[in-house]
Fold each of these.
Amino acid sequence: MKMAALFAALLGSQLFVIPVSERVPELKVEATCKATTADDKANGLALPQSFADCMRDETAAQQQLNTVWGAAPNSLRDSCEGEATSGGSQSYVDLLTCIQMAEWVKSPSSATRLRGASKTRNSQ
């Protein structure tokens, strides 16, 4: 107890708290990656995703979330977190995708427009 008080006194005004809602939630993605790998193998996919590749994708998504999380409205963060953790699986990729899709819906003009097949597209 005395050590904690001394530590806090030494830090003084440098001590700050980040509200939980301002941080990207800590998700347990290992179970999701294990299940994904097992499902891919069980379904006989020619190129099943490895556990390492899944974890790499999840880590990359978590890093991207660190840059966009604070700018997202609380209601969107709550909604997307619920979606990304539903059914017992947890995924930073799902969480990031949810936030990106909501941002795209809000301002679709900044997104790359997709062009479908057209008989006359290349003749213009």
Amino acid sequence: MTIEIKVPVLPESVADATIATWHVKAGESVKRDQNLVDIETDKVVLEVVAPEDGVLGEILNEEGATVLGEQVIAKLEQGGSAEKAAPAKSETKEAPKADAGGASVDIKVPVLPESVADATIAAWHVKAGEAVSRDQNLVDIETDKVVLEVVAPNDGVLSEVLADEGATVLAEEVIAKFTEGASTGAASAPAPTATESDESDNDALSPSVRRLLAEKGVDPAKIKGTGKGGRITKEDVEQHLKSGGSAPGPAASAAAPEVAAVAGERTEKRVPMTRLRKTIANRLLEAKNSTAMLTTFNEVNMKPIMDLRKQYQESFEKRHGIRLGFMSFYVKAVTEALKRYPEVNASIDGDDIVYHNYFDISIAVSTPRGLVTPVLKDTDMLGMAGVEKGIKELALKGRDGKLSMAELQGGNFTITNGGVFGSLMSTPIINPPQSAILGMHKIQDRPMAVNGKVEILPMMYLALSYDHRIIDGKESVGFLVTVKEMLEDPTRLLLDV
């Protein structure tokens, strides 16, 4: 039976998406809930998983292709098998011991920016004794806002880990020992134990399995995966819960099964905040306590921009190599409004007001580790294509934890687009020391009165949160009206009127 693999339904404010990464090749076997492909929109990356066990028969859209909501992008042959899907090995060679003759190298924390005092070991991707290849990521090190990857300097073995996950470390501190050119049986052992298999696959869990584990409060290390390579499936989690939420075995089933069953439904999981989450929490609290924040609202008819995008989308993408999204219109409209209302582009420093004669706009980006606001600089000097390319680059770096401190510092004003998640209206919180933030929302068809008649138009609410200590009602309302006028008549952006 052939199953069509489709692009998920996109939010109304997102017109199309891009194939970012195929994780499976045509002809390869896959398991149910295994991630097949990452699909990228303006601000989020969507994972498309296999609906059933089978073989990915045909890929219709390669990486980089622009696709629409519910478009068929691949075919899956249900229950099929592929020749390249892990044939059994006829013989197993004895794993050689680690070669002690290689040079020993210290693995150190990278040099941290001047504004960052220390960092935290976030995740080790390699265990002590395991063989690695040159440039393979060994460990993620987390600072307040960015994640740094430390890679293997050469082929060899990670011989010793000196700083465990969660440890606080300093710049250039030695966190592990590495033996160059050595080999170990860890990489070629015939089969890991059930516990090792579960632990190594935790980071590769599919979104649905991660969600189910979080909802039920189940530790994945206690579940024996039956999927490919010991991968945990939804069925494994459900079976684990049916058996009383404990690891399988006669001893576990004999020990108070009724109590275990109740506990399986009412468990708790305590996880320490990451450094990034702590920083976000502190900054949000600071914004609420140190500013006189108010929010003013307006709404925009998005039909002119949607018609313009539809008319020029194809030629724009051919000429500039990137699709035309809504964010470039938002950024250009905000830049023009900031020119007309310099108070909104200013900030308070002690008893002084600092007026900025440049336009650096922070773009709120949702990442797996939390919300970050990388800065798109000199937006008044960028064209629409330059804005689109800049936003895409920042969004990809944010998703992969590759943003530098320089890309996260500064910014005079912030734009956040909750519409991609379906938000109809919100009151965004100011990003200190900035004085204002603009929230864009879901584009939704609504009946509107136009020249005495009712028309159905694609409308979007705007929300401007601002610091009333520096921005008065006149400036805040005027700023928002300017953004509205620019978006409802995008020709104004070209004619500067």
Amino acid sequence: MARISVPVSATRLAPPSQVHSAPIRAGVKSSNHPTEPQNVRKVGWEYLWQSIRTSLPLVVIDLMALALAITVSRQLVWLLGGAAGMNLSAMFPPIALGFVIVGAELGLYPGIQLSPVEEFRRLIVAVACMFAVWTVAVLIVQDTFDVQGWFLALSFALCATTLVMARSVARRVLGSREWWGFPTLVCGDDTRAIEVYEWLRTSPHVGLRPVGVIADPSSLELDGSEPWFLGDWSSVRSHAVDGKAYWALVIPSEEAQSDITDEVDSCLEAVPHVQLISELSGLPDHWGGRRPVDGLDGIHIQQNLMLPGKRLTKRLIDLVVATSALLVLMPVLVAIALAVKLTSRGPIFYGHSRLGLDGRGFKAWKFRTMVENADTKLDQYLEAHPELREEWEKDQKLKWDPRITVVGRVFRKLSLDELPQLWNVLLGEMSLVGPRPIVTSEIEKYGDCFGLYTSVKPGITGLWQVSGRNNTTYDERVQLDEYYVRNWSPWLDIYLMLRTIRTVLFAEGAY
């Protein structure tokens, strides 16, 4: 099973520097799956609470299994006349915490939709990491390594065995509880969708609780009275919200194996976790046969910026970096302000109306780089040079803009004029990294992607700024924004911020 976050129609994950040339455009709606452009759904406390309810019992059971296994190992060592050579009461709590952190990173919590083989592998890796940290901790705390090696080996074997057995029992018990697991939509215009629905309904230990089936009634010859049938593809969002569904399993139609965009796109704006079931099997087949087992083979698309924890992480990064940058750059900001004031008439700052989160307007602040009455001067210039009007209407930019002052041209080249937007970041109107802020007249150019664009805060920098900036077309810019929203991660933000430094220093694509 592959767990990656990709644009739906991408044939591969292109490096960020090459995204503008990759076929990543999504958002094209098929007539069979009508949807209205709207904001991407954001999930909040209900999702967090469901994640806690699903994860916490497994955390408790795992820690109990570890404590039991290590205690039994210690007792066996004493019975055989040996000594473990360590204080378990002091060492176990931090080691157990490390196990939980590693387990969460490996996806053991909440541990949804893992095959027995994959869950076994991840448990062994987590235990191995725990024992590696355990060994290093003993070496640091004690001058000599007096822990018996066979005690560690026995503990490792018992921990691995006990964890696997405890997990198996826990899943069976928890699966019988209605509050455990995640409500799930099963989507597909193929009879395999009904089979997957029935399998999930009879396999609650997987942790995906089927709400019902989304399908084109004519494709499955349904009359609408089936108890498991929810509606057609246009109703995905309403059923996801009403049913509090956070997962969707999409089964591609056999007639559309070459293009799965239409099969997946309706779910992406409504469900944070979309699992595209492998077209080779339809149902899980990890054992090499066709019988269902505990795992669904396919590609997992996770909409990170739908999730409250991910959004909180992004906000914390914004606050820490923006505050630090304002403090460090204060002398530079003062120097730029003086240069603006002493070289041209007008205010130091310029606030331009832009569209932000959920389509709300805000003032994006910059150091003023243009002369007074800039709009009037632009109209006069375009009237005198009609051959440049097409260039302006195409990208809302001119290679040589007569409105820009001498020092303003330098500031724009180095992107110094945008430093006041750090204040917008602190106010929560912008993010350090995100799509380029746009004006109302640009909405039409985003088309069906506008709802996706307004699902996040615009950024001071972003994928567009490090991928050619003004040397890219507007369509490529839209694709870059879409790619960013679909594939956001903290590491992507950090990478783009570092790339921005190089882009600014070499003034790549700036004018």
Amino acid sequence: MANVYKFAWLNIAALSTGSDYEGFINEAREPRAIFGFRASFAAIIGTGSQDINRNLQGRPCVLLDGEVTLLWDKQSDLPGGGDWMAPLFTRAWVYQERSLARRTLAFATHGVFFSCDEAYYGRTSTFCAVAAALVDEALATGNAPSREQLQMEARDLLSRFDATWNGAVIDYTKCKLTKDTDRLVAISSTAHEVADSGIPREKRYLAGLWDINFISQLRWMTCEGRNTKPRKRIGTDGYVAPSWSWASIEAPVATCGAFYTDDKPIRFLADVTAADVKLATEFPFGAVRAGWVRLRGCLRAVSGSETHGTMGGTSLTDEATGENLWFASDTTEGYEMVASSAGLRKVVWVPHVLTALETMVECNVLVLSELSPDEETGDDDGTFIKPGEKVYRRLGMGNFGRIPSLFRQDKLLMAMGTYPEADEMEDIAREFVRNEVGFREFVII
């Protein structure tokens, strides 16, 4: 599919049709309605005087003698307008077509427009040209760079790569699929193209994520968990991806980009030590049968939960401190588990990322549920999961925090590590030392 759209001379897109049975050449093709009329400067300015040639002080004003031609210009369905919500763009299978095509002639409801690799500031928003742009910038160095410059450029490339893929995930998960089992397959050609870009050179695709800065890519969440059906489990019909992947749920997701430069106020509170997937075919960017990630971090128990109002959020109570943290479940399963005493006993949370901003010191967390000993883990040959190792499934994300002047009063924030005595937030984040007491390895499937 990548070759079809990448090497096609022209791609024709029928934006306004909902199916193959509808036409896209219609009577309402003219996108612009223009009405012209003339009016005096005085009428436009509104002097408030009976004598339109006099100003507000009643003095003669030559400027008010003139007239001007005015145009009322109505445009719709043009690039940058509502066409991005057109029926065609709600279909997930079309995302690859949009991201890989070099030239597109698009028929919208009220207009026709053209886009190509030079349509946006000389660079395209497609992955092909984005990858080329990154390579161009990486090679465009005058003098031999120093080691420090190379490190900075490498971090910058990684950051832009991560931001590019995060943007693709956000756009793609807004689209709909007839068969949810196609979720990884329908974006596989785009992922393949990204892998071929060589930025960064050594990277592996793992069910919608990349093993470059994997810990940061686990920072995704959805706001539609209360209406999202539970994800399928390993070995059942309809299984799509491991719980740590955004592809495991049928909902739009938001992602948080990576911060590679040293001056950004972010610190990771857990480490990814290994990750792997079992492919459904030989194609490394397609469907998977199972997936695992091993984290090293602190597993903290939950002693209670509370729902705040009929439309409010849900909070979890940390067993060790009695402090609360907000919880956003990926699906209805998470809310059901924390609402019952039996389910709550299986729930744990893991500190993930600490962020220090001018307005907030915040900690993002992963919320997990422990698997029963008889549940399928997908590790048939026993090469990934160690004997007796704890295995969990992701339920969702959580967070807690305080304003800068009060963060030292928060028991949970202080339990995350040691903070310097500095007042500047960037210094606090930069010199923060995480608390690794109780760190252990565990697996999420």
